[in-house]
Every structure is written in C-alpha cells, then in structure tokens.
Amino acid sequence: MDHQTKSEVARVVFPYVEILKDGTIRRLAGTEVAPAGYDPETGVLSKDVVIIPKTGVKARLYRPTNSTNKLPLVVYLHGGGFFISSMADPKYHDSLNKIVAEANILLVSIDYRLAPENPLPAAYEDSWAALQWIASHVDGEGGGENWINDYADLGQLFLAGDSAGANMSHHFGLKIKGSDLDQKLKIQGMVMIHPYFWGQAPIGKEATDHFRKSMVDSWWSLVCPSEKGNDDPLINPFVDGSPSLAGLACDRVLVVVAENDILRDRGWLYYEKLKKSGWEGKVEIEETEGVDHVFHILDPSCEKADTLFKRLSSFINHGKAPVSVV
C-alpha cells in the first residue's frame, strides 16, 4: 500500500477490513468467488438461485448426484463475522461439497447481506426470510425450487452454521418456537460449529489473550451499532433479558469447538448452559485438538477436517430412515 492510500484509511478492522475516509469499505479477505456447478472430486452438483428478489438475497444449493432417496435438508449459514465471505467463497464451496458428499444431504447455503454496509440485524432478517422461503415448499404450498421439492425430506430439517452462522442458528432455534413457521418447519437438530458468541467480561483464555480479544471486540463494533456493545443479546445469549435456552425448537444440538480458538470457551459455556437450562433435548460437544477457528473451512482436505465431516454426517443421519424419491 502506498503512502497516499494509507492516508485515505480512516479505520482498520484487523486483519480483514479497511474503511476509507470517504466511507468506502475495502475487504482484504473473503472476496473470492467460485462458480457453482459439478464437482468431480465429490460428485456433488450445485447451483445458485435468487430467493428474496426484493433484497437480492441468494442461496447456493448442493446435492449429491448419486442418491436415489430423498435427503435430509440442511440450511447452512456461513461465517465471516457478519462482514466478509459469501456462499460463493471458494473455501466454503470446497468444504460444503465435501460435507454434502460425506453426509449425503441436500444443503442450502444462504448468502445474506454483509455489514457494515448493511448493519445487523440485516443478516438475521435475510436468513430468517430464507427460512420462510424454505417453508413455502412444505405441503405443496407453492415453493418453486425443484431441488427442494424433488430431493428434500422436509421431515429431516437441520440448521447448521459456523462462527457467525452458528450464532444465527441459535437465534433462529429460539425464534421459530411460536412463530408462523413453527407448524411448518420442524427442526430436527442444530449443528453449531465454532459459534460466535462474545461478552464484555472476559472468560477463559480471553482474559489473557489481549490481542485476540481486542480484535474480536473490533469486529463486533463494526457490524452492530448497539449501545450495549459486547453484551448485546445478539452476541451474548446469557445477558439479562435474553430468552431461555430451554425454548430451543429442536431435540438435538451438536456444538463443535476448536482447542486453539479464542471463541472456544464461549462454545463450552453454551454447551454447559444448555444442559442446565431445562431444555429437554440432547446436546453433544466435539472438540478438535490442536487447531484454530474454522480450520475445516480453511483446509477442508486435512485429516482433522475429514474427521469433523464424518462427525457431522453421523449427527445428521442419526436414526434416519431413507425416503424414496417418487
């Protein structure tokens, strides 16, 4: 970067974003795009569809090409702190191809609008609208996506996501109960990979890792212009006034954490709080040793990523009886 360009920078949100003095957002990561299509390595086919024409929100759908049964439907919410990445990010595209092939599922990856151009709760609103779009396919109510109509077993519906996407899965697992979607979408389970929760008071390694704590602090202040800061209920689900975890609208939850992740202790806290909340479902936790945040997205071909994908498949397919494609 030359001196003139440096002088134009008003704020750096390390290491991913620069905000120029004229308001321009310069993303330094998560901007690459991989096209949808057939992946010969996994035998998975993908395509892009516009699902919310008013806002331009899209989704990338994935399905294995060798299945003769209707498949569990996984609604996937990508990570990126709410401010980088997309459904077309090559790292997500590669990892989701592998997950779909391993678990033999139909997957819908939602491409919500990003902050700070669209501050929170825009990402939540877009993703909730995407769930309403999914619900339009239940009981022949008019949903027009043939992959969902032809290949999805809507009785086997899962919410999944990593980081910011896991955060949204949690909120939707609570919001859906008693909503207009409650009778249409029966969430069988949630997969929360390296969930992005935070708080003003540090816990665990946050208390000693001052550099990474300040880094995550800056991410949240970028995306959520809230006077509550790190104790906004969107990022801290345990502050006073937050809905009880006992209201989760599913029977099973898998929390995945990584040993070296600054968010690890928040994932464990969520697991412990959920166990003690009075929720009647079953929660499991899986910790991967020696790795950091979203390692499986950054390197989906590594051995530990393969182990994680098998664990996700086992969770999703637990007790599932195949439904034939008519």
From TrEMBL:
| Domain (Alpha/beta hydrolase fold-3): residue spans on this chain | 74-296
GO terms, molecular function: hydrolase activity
Q: Which domain of life is it from?
A: Eukaryota
Coiled coil residues, start to end: none
- Family per record: Belongs to the 'GDXG' lipolytic enzyme family.
Protein name per the record: Carboxylesterase 2
Organism classification, top ranks?
Eukaryota, Viridiplantae, Streptophyta, Embryophyta, Tracheophyta
